[in-house]
Specification:
Blueprint (H helix, E strand, L loop, with lengths): L1 E7 L16 E4 L3 E6 L4 H5 L2 H19 L4 E3 L9 H10 L1 H11 L2 E10 L16 H36 L3 E5 L5 E8 L3 H14 L3 E5 L10
Antiparallel strand pairs: 1-3, 1-4, 2-3, 5-7, 5-8, 6-7
Length: 225
């Protein structure tokens, strides 16, 4: 049975969108519930690359739609249970653990902060005017290269300062290194504090010009489950 998320048993009906290939259903226990797509033949989806891509997108869409209605524990794409009974047993066995986690996540969202290093230009050397020869030329080149390394060191020091400031304000943060020096920081923040996050972001951008800060939209807490 294909499963999207766990959440506290809702007191009012949820607005359910279409699933990957069919209708969705909420399976409830006394305190916990799960959103499932009971008729999905997931193996068939896996065997078709086009369907697989669409299924990944649909999975995220369903979770996001649910996230705006209720606090959830989003599950990874492809999560399945052998049967309804196995799913209910799993919820009952892990009730306390899931309830504690849901309480921690109540009213919160995940934000991705992308930190991109500004490309550094090679420092100009006024002595590199074509008049230097031999040893003097290579000495000047060495000095120019060292100045560039100093710039990069300063940029990395600035990153550590940004990181320290962010984690002081938002302790629920997870760092994930990207490619080309791009860093991704995932923040768990109360949804109602989103405006203050943008204010902090503007302050940090002005304070640390060697990094470009880009903030994504509020998402389910994928990295904090």
């Amino acid at each position: 049975m294909y499963t999207y998320a766990f959440f506290k048993t809702p007191s009012t009906p949820l607005q359910l969108s279409a699933g990957i290939d069919g209708d969705l259903e909420v399976i409830e226990t006394s305190v916990l519930a799960a959103l499932v797509e009971p008729e999905l033949e997931f193996e068939a989806v896996q065997n078709d690359d086009n369907q697989l891509v669409q299924a990944v997108l649909a999975h995220d869409r369903v979770i996001c739609d649910l996230f705006w209605q209720i606090t959830i524990l989003p599950l990874r794409f492809g999560t399945q249970f052998l049967s309804r009974d196995h799913l209910i047993a799993h919820l009952n066995e892990n009730r306390n653990k899931y309830l504690d986690k849901l309480n921690q996540l109540e009213g919160k969202a995940e934000y991705r902060l992308k930190l991109t290093p500004i490309e550094l230009e090679l420092p100009s050397n006024p002595e590199m005017n074509g008049s230097l020869k031999g040893r003097d030329y290579f000495q000047a080149k060495k000095q120019q290269y060292q100045a560039h390394l100093d710039q990069k060191d300063q940029q990395q020091q600035e990153f550590q300062q940004i990181l320290a400031e962010i984690e002081q304000v938002y302790p629920d943060a997870k760092l994930k290194a990207g490619s080309d020096g791009v860093e991704k920081l995932y923040l768990l923040i109360n949804k109602q504090d989103e405006m203050s996050l943008y204010q902090y972001l503007s302050k940090w951008q002005n304070q640390y010009p060697q990094w470009e800060l880009g903030l994504g939209e509020a998402l389910p807490p994928y990295h904090f489950v």
